[in-house]
């Protein structure tokens, strides 16, 4: 299938997002679509698949002008869209989610469950996903939910698959599997539009790349004819050579300690410490238990055993409120679920964890609140026209920055960041890293969970590698390599 | 940030917030057209006095609904606290003190709802449906099913003034309604408590992770609802000069209707207290207007229901 989008325009109110974008997908091509957060990538794909109405311009499918009425219409014509923001039904099972609106039934309308099970299992196995079909989907990690979305899309026999940041929650292994499948499908003639902020994925997977900036498509080239520096420059409009700033912070005394933390069936005997001014990364495969350890430390889940010390004092966190009082902050990984109040404004989201600091006798100091919010919006370069619109209208990467702003604003001395740069563009990533350096320079102890190995190696001082709920080893980052981390993360041993 | 953009967003906001006010204005216009005596000052004060009990309950209900909850027990709390307060007065407790005790009992009954919902994890609809019957039953037990009245009530200045007195020419229930509105407006829109209320309704999980003590806030909100119901109960007892065991039946429906007419979303997280006041006025105007026009109470119910459906449909359109 060949897709040609010509001179596409789209605005939201006064926000002119697309100002004449051209985009062409050749049959069987893997085409990367890149651009900063808020550049309009998701919007362009929403227009292609009929989710958003087009304002001006035209779309040709195999040479014929075709404007889809809605997402189902696009899907029936062989275009499947794996969204950046997952739209699943939390209480329903994996199976039910996979077949929603495309149930297999007999001629009396009765569900043919076993046929659906077989098919679902087939595609999930293909992706190497081993969770059960009857689990409620909200019990799965974000990464596993992403796999369900991918399996769902593979099931539709699409000729074009749009992937909007499919790997942002996946780890190396799952990504490799996904890439293998994408290549296999490509060999059978399936085309892909691939949106991602991870440079190395573009160069290993994609054939062609289109870069968007300021509402237009600035270039389209063969990936082989360009390089990472050129791509980044076209995206952000300036040179950006070093992705990771140097870690120069003076690491201080031990500030945070965890001793023998256990939670039945989830993690076992986890001990580690973080010094003030230090960044300790937690690496591991999806489902290794990294997030679960942090949830228990922060008082979201219960701890069965173990002790937590902050600045030498034993603390008990029965709830997030208690943890926050002890100076701990936790930026959770799933922004839609636990990170944001989507319908509330940016301002109301950002100050949610810091209400206490500008409240006197229960009254909110609106003036200081506003200064606080605006400063964080500026510091994190959140792309918006006002702090008073719903976060749901922001692009994915900018929503991520709102969650980060909330926790940076909370002024914690121990900051747990779970996938802090998920879905954030290269330029903004660099800004977040700079910010982390700034925080550690002020003595903040940072715990960073990341599935992005280059990020782990580039931005930490020490690395704890978690495998099946245990810390397999602690590496000094300067001695660590991708190989040593991966060996530990898959349950292997390293010598010396 | 760009100022013109900000304005544009606010226009939409403005129309959204103004919807209920426009509806009220239209209604007032219509009723006046059909019967000029609607605008008589006495009729208007009478209307506001009729509105006050429902408005008080609806103010509390607004907080509850903002958290995506519901409180069906308000009518029963009103009856129970009204009855027990009347009994205390007859037994010789000073009416002012009895009033405070009644409010305290209302707070406790509301708090029980909150505890069941917050700690028991019960769905608010079910929890308050159960306590609605329990509290109503308790009222019948307490009163033996008979109205309570007595000389100690009719002779007390304090007791009389709450429901029937005037302050600067304004009926006292209206004064109470306005004072309550101001206090709760500040609580909801100017204090951290209000922010937390919205946050719980918007996304309880995110609110919890952000350090908001959602159980505590939830209990306090149902407590508030109980307090408002018991204040309304006292006003009603004073107006009628007696406590009726079946007082307040279906009051929860009028309160919910006022909240929804005022633009607050039953899904939680969205709405304003001013909207609820307007919503209560819409219902009051409908009742009053239809009475003036001599429409039978049977038809009145039908009309009220239709108005609610229209309001909700307009609201849905706006959301899309
Ligand atoms: N429903 C909406 N209402 C208002 N503005 C919107 C809406 N959807 C998107 N926008 C705006 O359009 C712009 C482009 O958003 P879009 O989601 O397409 O960006 P993106 O390139 O996908 O970014 P990211 O890399 O962060 O996912 C942003 O400024 C965003 O705020
Ligand atoms: Mg996007």
TrEMBL record, chain A:
Residues 3-239, 249-493 form the ABC transporter domain. Keywords: ATP-binding, Cell membrane, Membrane, Nucleotide-binding, Repeat, Sugar transport, Translocase, Transport. This is Ribose import ATP-binding protein RbsA. SUPFAM superfamilies: P-loop containing nucleoside triphosphate hydrolases. The keyword Aminoacyl-tRNA synthetase does not apply. GO terms for molecular function: ATP binding. It comes from the Bacteria. InterPro entries: AAA+_ATPase, ABC_carbohydrate_import_ATPase, ABC_transporter-like_ATP-bd, ABC_transporter-like_CS, P-loop_NTPase. The lineage of its organism: Bacteria, Bacillati, Bacillota, Bacilli, Lactobacillales. Transmembrane segments: none annotated.
TrEMBL record, chain B:
Keywords: Cell membrane, Membrane, Transmembrane, Transmembrane helix. InterPro entries: ABC_transp_permease (IPR001851). It is found in: Cell membrane. The chain crosses the membrane at residues 21-39, 59-84, 166-188, 217-236, 298-314. Pfam families: BPD_transp_2 (PF02653). Coiled coil: none annotated. It comes from the Bacteria. It is a multi-pass membrane protein. This is Ribose import permease protein RbsC.
